[in-house]
Amino acid sequence: ACQHQPPGQEDTRDGQSLVFADLSPEEMAQVVRYLRGNLGVPLVDASRAKPSDNCIASVEVQVPAKAEVLQFLDGGGARPPREALAVLYLGNQPEPNVTEYVVGPLPRPVYHRDVTLQKYGGKVPYHRRPVTGKEYTDINGLIQRELRKALRFLAACCGSDGTDLAILTTAPRGFKSGDRATWFVLFHSVAGTGYYLSPVGLEVLVDHGDLHVSRWRLLKIFYNGQYFGSAGELEDAFVANLLEMVRMEKPPAEAVLGSLRPQRPPGSPGPLQYEPQGPRYSLRGNRVTFQGWSITFGMNPNSGPRLFDIRFRGERIVYELSLQEALALYGSNCPGGMSTRYFDGSFGIGRFAYELVRGLDCPYTATYVDRHYLAESETPKTNQNSLCIFEHDAGLPLRRHFSDSQSFYYGGLRKTTLVIRAVSTLINYDYIWDFMFHSSGAVEVRVHATGYISSSFLHGRGTDYGNKVGPHTLGTMHLHHMHYKVDLDVDGQLNSLETQDMEYELVKDPWSMQNTIERPYLRRERLEREDEAAFPLNTPMPRYLSFASSKPNKWGHPRSYRIQILSFAGEHLPTSSSMERSISWGRYQLAVTRRKEEEPTSTSIYNQNDPWTPTVAFADFINNESITNEDLVAWISVGFLHVPHAEDIPNTVTVGNGVGFFLRPYNYFDEDPSVDSPDSVYFSSEQDTGACGANPLACLSPAAACAPHLPPFHYGGFLNL
User: Fold this and answer.
1) Hey, is 597 helix, strand or coil?
2) Which sequence positions are flagged as catalytic?
3) CA dihedral 536, 540, 541, 544 (to 10 degrees)
4) Please, which residues have CB within 8 angstroms of residue 428's CB and are 6 or more apart in sequence?
5) 286, 20 contact by CB (below 8 A)
């Protein structure tokens, strides 16, 4: 058996990372108990609450202000009080609204303060609240009752009475502020497979804006290119033989489109990575250290994974690196598809990061960490093993050289990275969020999309909006755009933005002055204001763009970190759109602004259901302020256009569907810091390359000749469903 050895790294800041820690279930329960006893309004558990009730929608950690945190981390100041942010839907009020309270100090709260006005400039209108599970349940009940008025049609079109059809929401919910009318798409549901590929051609528009469920109503029904005012009207058209019917029998499980059941028996096991002497990283609470790296990690229930206080060799490089939003915007000739613009943060990117499957979602021997959340219930829930940490051997040299002249030698270093990963399932899509840390001092951020495509019923000129992927299934075109916040602190908080790119100059050769040479030269520029540093999506951007310190490295260049974006985004929504301001972060592949405590996020969970009057509009962050020698934030958009095709069945594959960015040292060091890696290999022609003392690769045979300890497989990811 392999004998584990501790990594041997000193943890000199034990406990400091807890200033960023997500709430524990006990802390969440204390906040709920405090609010119930001190808020002075009747509260109903959100899992049962009607729109006309008051309820606690969510509770999460309130991260202290950066100045307070840095005074604590770097200046010997007091630990900031630990506080929670509680979001309440207050429907049982003369003026229903959404109110946010900061509650503290934890673990035993004694105060709460309303921060809604401070954050948003006023109360958040009630219609902007995200839809709860209870609201969806009540909507489904309404749809089922209405469909009973069209039973003969349902039997003929779908072989169903409607009760076994899956119902999928779209969003946003109307065309103007105050609307709460949603198109719902109906599908055949077959146990054990994704219903998203089996539309039956039926879609319904439900107005659910009233506080009283009894006043909700079905406004429209769509079937195979035709619109009707009610289920009764649809039934009458069927009886009168006025419908173009396409019979869609419920497929058997073995023949359903998109089944993930294996079609072959298991083969021999594939390659397995393991650690002969145990993990070389160290995990303590919410902080992981690895070969000079120190990272504090967490999970926001809405916006998803986020990292704080990222240090390399003891120096902070990034104060905050966090996902902000994931947008999926669709096209179709069916009403549900054509109106869909999912803002996934409103649904819960972190909340729906479920348990990871050992050996597939992450390496079998990875370290798995639980995450906790409180949303739409007064009882905290746990997504067990929903974040994984592992060291990954890329099977590629980070650097290498074989010398075949002057002297003969080989030198190189394996490319191994520390990976922090979570996977969010947002209805049909699964997003794999990766944060990777290289021994060269680079940070890599990447997202891959997989899971099921969403689809529409194929009718008319449907292929103008995608490809046919089943007998009556249109794989609808859509774009995925993700937004990140990167608060870089390069050799201190105060940085400037510098760009470099190439041009050619035509010069005469200086040794004869008779010939000309096209000589590339470096064009350097410092960007002075925010407007200059807002780079529109899909337009040329300087190839080198860096956050620069005022302090030089050994060679006289500003110590800097370069931002390098890898993306092939689709086109942003036209700015003439009435809802564009709600996703105005998508205008830019990169925008650099001065950091402000009152601009913590680029969007809001309230933008989804009122994109016409956005609660947070990122475009307002860019107001041409100076960005020279200031605390700066880089806001980065990445994404891709996806036109579904036959090979997206059953699932979209991750190959070619990954985008992201790098943060790379640029004159930050005096040389590549990976030269200090204990994994470096060097041997010359005069050495015995098979000797362990001369070549660490020769030590592998005895050092790794052991059997890894593989824990028994267990999966509990279905527990919270």
Assistant:
1) coil
2) 344, 429
3) 160
4) 194, 196, 451, 452, 453, 454
5) yes
pLDDT digit string, tens, across residues 134-175: 999 999 999 999 999 999 999 999 999 999 999 999 999 999
What is the rounded CA–CA span in Å between residue 455 and residue 474? 5
Which amino acid is it at 512?
Answer: S
- What are phi and psi for residue 321, nearest 5 degrees? -135, 110
Give the whole-angstrom CA distance, residue 565 versus residue 569.
Answer: 11
Crossing angle for the helix pair 151-158 and 231-239, to the nearest 10 degrees: 70
- Do residues 605 and 345 make contact, with C-beta atoms less than 8 angstroms apart? yes
Whole-model pTM? 0.97
Residue 13: its pLDDT value, please? 67
Handedness of CA 390, 395, 401, 407 (dihedral sign): positive
- Angstrom distances, CA of residue 393 to CA of 25, 297, 415: 35, 22, 6
Strands 455-457 and 494-508: unpaired
Residue with token string 């007091």:
78
Query: 324 is written with which tokens?
Result: 């902000």
How confident is the model at residue 167, as a pLDDT? 97
Q: Which long-range contacts (CB under 8 A, 24 or more apart) does 254-258 make?
A: 256/188, 256/190, 256/193, 256/198, 257/197, 257/198, 257/469, 257/470, 257/473, 257/649, 257/650, 258/193, 258/194, 258/196, 258/197, 258/198, 258/452, 258/649, 258/650, 258/651
Residue 205: strand pairing partners: 183, 220
- CA–CA gap between residue 226 and residue 220 (Å, rounded): 10
Q: How many CB atoms lie within 10 A of CB 6?
A: 10
DSSP, collapsed to helix, strand or coil, labels residue 117 as helix
Q: For residue 520, how many other CB atoms are within 10 A of its CB?
A: 9
Q: How high is the pLDDT of residue 12? A: 58
Residues 238 and 397: their CA atoms lie apart, in Å, by: 66
Burial class (CB in 10 A: 0-12, 13-18, 19+), 498: buried
Name 404's Cβ contacts closer than 8 Å, sequence gap at least 6. Answer: none
- Residue 382 · residue 371 · CB < 8 Å: yes
Amino acid at 18: L
What's the CA gap between 658 and 363, in Å, rounded? 19
| Below-50 pLDDT ranges, the chain | none
Q: CA-CA-CA-CA torsion for 574, 576, 578, 584, nearest 10 degrees?
A: 50
- Walk me through the domains of the chain, giving residue ranges and CATH numbers: 25-125 (3.10.450.40), 133-240 (3.10.450.40), 283-491+525-666 (2.70.98.20)
Of 637, 135, 586, nearest to 329 by C-alpha is 586
User: Whole-angstrom Cα distance, residue 248 to residue 229?
Assistant: 23
Contacts of 504 (CB under 8 A, 6+ apart): 518, 519, 520, 521
Nearest to 6 by CA among 274, 272, 275: 275
Residue that is written with structure tokens 């005069």 in the block? 686
SS3 assignment, position 544? strand
Element (H, E) at 437: strand 429-438
Our measurement of the distance from residue 697's CA atom to the centroid of its chain's CA atoms, rounded to an integer in Å, reads 38
**The two three-digit tokens of residue 142, written as one number:** 């309404």
**Sequence-separated (6 or more) residues with CB below 8 Å from residue 586:** 327, 481, 483, 537, 572, 573, 637
Beta strands, E only, 49-96: 54-62, 83-90
Taking the CB of residue 148, how many other CB atoms lie within 10 A of it? 12
Residue written as tokens 């120096």? 315
CA 415/CA 393 separation, integer angstroms: 6
C-beta of residue 201 within 8 angstroms of C-beta of residue 472: yes
Nearest Cα neighbor of 543 from 503, 572, 506, 570 is 503
Contact 472, 457 (CB under 8 A): yes
Task: Provide the residue type at 602 as one letter.
Answer: S
CA–CA dist 199, 120 (Å, integer)? 40
